[in-house]
Amino acid sequence: MSVADPRQEDYADPGPAATPARHPIAIWFFFWGEFAERCSYYGMRAILPLYLTTRLGLPDDTASTWYFAFKMGCYFLPLLGGWLADRYLGKYWTIVGFSVPYVIAQLLIGIENDWIVMLALALCAMGSGVIKPNISALMGQTYDQQRPGNGSLRASAFLWFYFAVNVGALISLFALPIIRNKFGYQVAFLVPAGFMAVALAIFALGKPHYAKETVGPAPSMSPEERAEQRKVVARLLGVFLLVVFFWVVYEHNDTQWTFFARDHIDLKIPSWAPSWLEATDKDGTPTGQIAPDQFQFINALFVLLLVLFFQWFWPTVDPTGKRFPQTTKVLLGFVFTGAAPAVMALAAQGTAGGAKVSMLWIVGAYIILTLGEVLLYGTMLDLSYAYAPARMKGFITACFLVTNALGNLINMQYAGMYNTRLSPELFFTIDAALCFGAAIAFFFVARQFNKSNAAAA
Asked: What's the whole-number mean pLDDT along residues 357-385?
């Protein structure tokens, strides 16, 4: 991407007379609160697909529909969360209030009844979805108030926030399948409930350190201000539309990839691996294999490693942000994300005649996918907040999250074609083509986005 980011002044050195250059105290409450909440969310998600197919007895395609409907709710309800927070409750009280049904949902989901599980997933989607845009927007608002003008510090905070997300995800994605293997689903689902209660307590304790909020309808704007606001929103929505295709492809890693591992990967535990990695069958008998959903922790592990790497890499090689503007990072994210299902498609070629392939294929695919995720998602969090009009920070953050909901809406139909209408090889090939096609389109959209923002600046 040859056009420089027009927002370079936002990343400029604040100078000796500026506000403190260190993170405010609030970062600790955001970090540890988000860590605990993500432990809860990803822990439940880690074991949910196989819970639906083994304990509730749903076929793969039906389980996929339930699962993607749940995730769609998690990423569509941020619109409700942003509206409630901006107009009525404020971000803090919206987060606290909707954390309660979140905890209740985690307690209910282990009851093996279709209707109770559906209710639990609906409550969990409501809690997670309403909270999601407000906690990141409140953090951005806190930095704007307490560290005004220091955009580089705020960008660093969003990366650390993303780091917290994946510390929680790593622990739960690794531990919950093991707990499930040893103690069963009912006990395993109690762990996310405990983490969610801890997350609520930590976040509530940080209230004195958060931004001061003004709740209610925004003051009226002039026609010129409204017109400029519409232009900015239109430019952002053009970018968001292509991000939908990233989510369509990315969200297969915990369902279709798990089903592929179950059916086509040699899961025999290596002799050097610890015995507690061993999965059990319905009767609790050891299988001598790794659980097919165990590989998900690789994603969270490499997010942590890559976030730490990029915290050093970007300030070192590109301290001004001109060499690798945000849109270039997002473009690279599309490319790497498309390469991951391409690896899975190659792995699928080796399964002819019922052959099993090495688990190194899926490990490599997860690493490549994670690189794409960090480049795209981590960057888009800050880009969405930074370019949003001042009066629409929460709403624009919610719109970005809705891109995930739209991706999951598509997957409610598309993902069910895996291994029914589409072979694994063809399914993953289409995934790669979708992402590479979105990358090509994004190149042109991003170039126009940068030009328009430069002109406005």
From this structure: 91
